[in-house]
Write a structure and sequence with these properties.
globular, mainly alpha, disordered C terminus
């Protein structure tokens, strides 16, 4: 990268009209999604009385996203990105609107809900990489860290506000949260239209003649595998995600063992959301202290100590303090990682790389609570948390033993990897 900044990089991110429009639309969309995330199972339970059917509807949406993620990455790299974004939001808004109409007309069926979940899952598979490419196309490199920090505020804010608001709206009427969700997608559509994101990333080639989907996916996979430092960081970050994901169930059981009821559990679990929201606001300051490879090792070591501290017999609310602190430092790692991926990935394969990473993380996600559940059942909640702490400690030691993660820079061409945060 040259030292000369683009004109847009010389102004604060808040003056980046295109990004701010995208962010406003996505904030509305994320809030609507969180509303319906709680309303969906409540609606299925009211319709069928079956928790299994409620789980099935959620599982269908997740499966549709997972199955289509890799093809979606190829299509987004080939197609008009603005049209993809607009089409996805239009489809999701209309799909949710049909649920609202069916509720009002008392014609809602389980088949209808499953179909809508599948459609929304498929649209999400396309929307997520397309939006990632859109961010990269409207935000100059110097503003990426601030942009992703603002993205984390959106995500954590919606996660905190959405579920309780969704429950309250469902109490007002079954149709209300679905109307709100449909409107939220419409707001996102208008914001995308006003932002007028580039149809293709500058430098990306639209030439796909003679290329198959398999060859396009393989090309992105080879590129990602050949980035030794990025590959090492991503692998260790996925191990960290696995360790973090397995701790939810033993934490709940630990709170119960200390006399906490469902209200206490809810308050403690909210600590992670509060920590993530606050961490998003200070992540860039923390990330400037260390290059990302050293930051990853430091986060692993600190998390190991914090989790060991969670086992201290200090009452049912104490785990909430630990969860807040661990969530506070998490964005300081995830935001620089997002910046690094965005800056390194060639524009013509950015959607494919994002989809590959998304599929890998999604494949790990369901494993974590299973591991946590069996550990808790086998050795108890306290020792399950100790095992989690040990996993973080091992990640830190493995990273220290890796020359790639220790040095951070393999050759002069990769020097930008450890100086992306300035």
């Amino acid at each position: 990268m040259s030292g000369e900044q683009s004109p847009s990089a010389q102004h604060p991110l808040r003056g980046n009209r295109k990004f701010q429009l995208l962010w406003i639309g996505s904030t509305a969309s994320a809030l609507g999604t969180q509303l319906s995330a709680l309303a969906y199972p409540l609606l299925v339970l009211a319709l069928t009385g079956s928790p299994g059917m409620a789980g099935l509807v959620g599982g269908v949406g997740f499966a549709a996203t997972l199955v289509l993620s890799l093809p979606a990455g190829v299509w987004v790299d080939r197609w008009d990105r603005r049209r993809v974004l607009l089409s996805c939001e239009a489809v999701r808004s209309l799909a949710i609107a049909t649920v609202a109409v069916a509720i009002v007309m008392d014609r809602l069926t389980l088949t209808h809900l499953i179909a809508v979940a599948a459609v929304n899952g498929a649209a999400s598979a396309l929307f997520v990489p397309a939006r990632e490419v859109a961010i990269r196309s409207v935000v100059p490199p110097e503003q990426l860290a601030a942009a992703y920090a603002q993205e984390h505020v959106r995500i954590h804010g919606a996660t905190l506000v959405g579920p309780p608001l969704g429950g309250w709206l469902f109490g007002l009427g079954r149709v209300v949260p679905f109307v709100a969700d449909a409107v939220s997608y419409a707001v996102s559509l208008v914001a995308i239209a006003l932002a007028r994101v580039p149809r293709r990333v500058e430098g990306a080639s639209a030439t796909v003649t003679g290329r198959t989907m398999r060859s396009d996916i393989a090309e992105a996979a080879r590129w990602l595998w050949n980035q030794r430092l990025l590959r090492a960081i991503c692998v260790l970050a996925m191990a960290v995600n696995l360790g973090a994901g397995m701790l939810s169930l033993p934490t709940i059981v630990l709170i119960q063992e200390r006399g906490g009821d469902s209200t206490v559990i809810g308050i403690v679990m909210a600590g992670a959301g509060v920590g993530g929201l606050l961490g998003s606001m200070v992540a860039n300051r923390i990330a400037r202290l260390l290059p990302i490879n050293h930051l990853l090792l430091a986060v692993c070591a600190v998390d190991a100590l914090l989790l060991l501290g969670m086992t201290a017999p200090l009452g049912p609310y104490w785990p909430g303090v630990v969860m807040l602190l661990t969530a506070l430092i998490a964005p300081a790692l995830s935001i620089p990682l997002q910046v690094q991926i965005a800056q390194q990935t060639p524009p013509e394969m950015m959607a494919r790389v994002q989809s590959l990473l998304g599929v890998t993380i999604s494949a790990i996600t369901p494993v974590a609570p299973i591991v946590g559940g069996f550990l808790t059942e086998g050795v108890g909640a306290t020792w399950a948390i100790v095992v989690g702490a040990a996993m973080f400690a091992v990640c830190s030691l493995v990273g220290l033993a890796s020359p790639t993660l220790r040095r951070g820079v393999e050759d002069p061409k990769q020097d930008s990897l450890v100086t992306a945060e300035k």
